[in-house]
Design a protein that fits this description.
Layout (H helix, E strand, L loop, with lengths): L2 H6 E2 L20 H5 L1 H29 L6 E8 L5 H8 L8 E5 L14 H4 L8 E5 L8 H4 L5 H4 L2 H14 L2 E9 L2 H13 L9 H7 L2 H14 L7 E5 L3 H17 L12 H8 L6
Parallel strand pairs: 2-4, 2-5, 3-4, 5-6
Antiparallel strand pairs: 1-6
Length: 289
C-alpha cells in the first residue's frame, strides 16, 4: 500500500468536518512541488497516465488471453455538486484506452429502473472482465440524495448500508477491485465554482438552479456522507477522501490511487500461446521443423 493510500483512507471514526478540503495530504516533499505545484502536477499526471495506460493494457490482455481471468477495476466517484467528478473522469480516465473502459454517469433513476431494486441498474453497468469501469455517482446516491431529500422513508434507505456492503463483497469475490473516492470540496469552493459557471456562457448548460437550493442542505449532506464513510468502508472496498478544492491535487491523487490499485493486481503481459520462433520463421519464409 502506498503512503497516499494510507493518508487518504478513512475508517469508521473519520470526521469529515475535520478534513481540510483545501489540503494536499501525501504530496511529495520536493522543491519542484512547492515551487509550482500546478506545473508539477501536470507533468506528474502525464507520467501517471502513461503508467495507467500500460496497466490497463495488461489487464485487458490477460482477460483476452484467458477467459477465466475475471479481474477488473472500478473507480467510484462521489461528491457534492461541483465537486469535480466530470473533471476527474476527463483528466484521469482520459489517459487510458476507451476500448477497455466503461464510464457510466448515474442520474435520477428512470421509470423503468424504479421498477427494480436500487442495485439493479448498478449491476447492469459493471465493467466486463479485463475492463476499467468508472461510476460518476453510484449506488451511494440511494443513501445520500434519497436520504437528504426524503425520497423514501428511513425504513427503506437505512437497511441499504448492509445491502451495499454485501453487494461490494460479492463484487470483490467476482474479481472486481474497487477504488471508492469521495471528492471533498468546501462550501465556499462550491460557491466559487457555481459563480464561475454563471460568468461563462459556455458553462451555462452545466448550471442547475437546484444546486443553489441544495446548498441549504449542506449540513444534511455532510451528515449523510459521514455515515456512508463510517458504515461502508471495508477492507475489500475502502473509502478514500480526496480534498478537492485544488483541482491539480485532486487529479494527481485520484490517478495515484487508481495506479496503486492496478499495481496491486500484479499484472504482467500474458505469455504467447504459440511458438514464437516458428511464427517468426514462417513470416521470414524460412523452413520450420
Amino acid at each position: 500500500m502506498s503512503e497516499l493510500l494510507r493518508v487518504l483512507r478513512v475508517g469508521p471514526d473519520a470526521d469529515l468536518n475535520a478534513i481540510d478540503a483545501s489540503g494536499t495530504p501525501g504530496l511529495p516533499d520536493r522543491k519542484s512541488v512547492h515551487k509550482d505545484p500546478k506545473a508539477w502536477a501536470r507533468a506528474e499526471l502525464a507520467e501517471l497516465g502513461e503508467r495507467l495506460a500500460v496497466q490497463q493494457e495488461m489487464l485487458f490482455a490477460n482477460a483476452t488471453a484467458n477467459p477465466e481471468d475475471q479481474r477488473r477495476v472500478l473507480l467510484v466517484l462521489q461528491a457534492m455538486d461541483c465537486g469535480g467528478k466530470d473533471g476527474t473522469v476527463k483528466k484521469v480516465a482520459g489517459t487510458m484506452n476507451p476500448k477497455g473502459m466503461r464510464i457510466v454517469s448515474f442520474g435520477a433513476p428512470t421509470s423503468d429502473e424504479l421498477k427494480h431494486d436500487f442495485l439493479w441498474r448498478i449491476r447492469n453497468a459493471l465493467p466486463k472482465p479485463g475492463s476499467m469501469g468508472v461510476f460518476n455517482r453510484s449506488h451511494y446516491e440511494d443513501v445520500l440524495v434519497v436520504r437528504v431529500l426524503k425520497l423514501v422513508a428511513e425504513r427503506v434507505w437505512r437497511p441499504r448500508y448492509q445491502m451495499i456492503n454485501e453487494f461490494e463483497e460479492e463484487l470483490a469475490a467476482s474479481g472486481i477491485t474497487m477504488v471508492k473516492v469521495m471528492l471533498h470540496i468546501s462550501f465556499e469552493e462550491q460557491r466559487k465554482r457555481l459563480l464561475a459557471r454563471l460568468d461563462d456562457p459556455t458553462k451555462h448548460w452545466k448550471y442547475n438552479p437546484q444546486d443553489v437550493d441544495n446548498r441549504a442542505l449542506w449540513p444534511a449532506y455532510q451528515e449523510a456522507y459521514q455515515e456512508v464513510l463510517a458504515r461502508c468502508g471495508t477492507d475489500l472496498a475502502p473509502w478514500y477522501v480526496v480534498p478537492a478544492d485544488h483541482k491539480w491535487y485532486r487529479d494527481w491523487a485520484v490517478a495515484t490511487l487508481l495506479l496503486d490499485a492496478l499495481i496491486g493486481l500484479g499484472l504482467r503481459y500474458p505469455p504467447a500461446s504459440f511458438d514464437v520462433a516458428r511464427e517468426r520463421a514462417r513470416l521470414e519464409g524460412r523452413k520450420t521443423t
